[in-house]
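In response to reviewer comment 3 from the previous cycle, which asked for concrete evidence that the modeling workflow produces usable outputs, we include below a single protein chain processed end to end. The sequence was submitted unchanged, and the resulting structure tokens are shown without manual editing.
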Amino acid sequence: MKESKNSWDAILQKAFESARKYEMKCTGCAQTTIAGIFDALDIENDDVFRSASGLADGLGLTGDGSCGALVGGAMAISYLFGREKKDFPDMFKPMRSYMMVKKLHDRFVEQYGSCRCYDIQEHLMGRTFNLYDPSVLEKAAEAKMYAHCSKVAGTAARLAAEIILYERNRQKGEK
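The workflow returned the following structure tokens.
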């Protein structure tokens, strides 16, 4: 049975709110996004969650890579729809997850103008932050970095959850 519109809306709202709250309280945008998605979809997998630990703030707090929230959303999609090791030689097997993650990327970039952490920081806060510099942490707090990044994590979680729900329902319709 396909989820109803009300059910979808509740799941998407839970993904957004859970990821947002986790980011405000715990930080680590890749992990907080995964946690929000997994909470909303009632999934438990500490291996996936733990594997996102070093991906925050553009990979390793560098700001120079892809937004950790976007990467966390991509990880959740790939966990659910990606290629398994037994299918490794089949180069076409991951195409579905590639297309789903591309959809996530495109929607995310449409909203934030980029997938790069520093670009998003610049867009939302007017500057970037080197989080390895203790003197910059206070400036990040003054710029409300945690509030901005929590909304980004929530948005990435909601977008990824929507793509996951759509694909699940599409698969159910095929059976």
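The two ends are 11 Å apart (CA to CA). We consider this sufficient to address the reviewer's concern, and the full set will be provided in the supplementary archive.
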